[in-house]
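Can anyone check this?
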Amino acid sequence: MDEAWGLTRMTKVEVVVGGEDVPVVTELFSEVGARGYTAISNVSGLGHSGYHQGRLLFNDRSVLTILTVVLPAERATALLDGLRSLLANRSGVLLVSDTWVSRPEYFQ
């Protein structure tokens, strides 16, 4: 796909965490050299702990947030190690996939 479409392969990491863990996740992104990320708060979903409705109840720490970052595969390992350590004792979801980008310089 890379050559045929003129795209560059990267790694996409998505993590769903409670609001209290967002600063830790964004710090991990920074530590591995991510140049940016997307955060969507107030997400809803159904999981092991039941249905979670995405609405701001009391503060930004009481909601779920999904954070997405794209980076070169060689930097993903360190990020995944940190995220797995965080999620070992916390609730959350970690998703990793290959993705292709049109402007790799934005993610280097």
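Reply from J.R.: I decoded it. The helical segments are 2-5, 22-31, 73-87.
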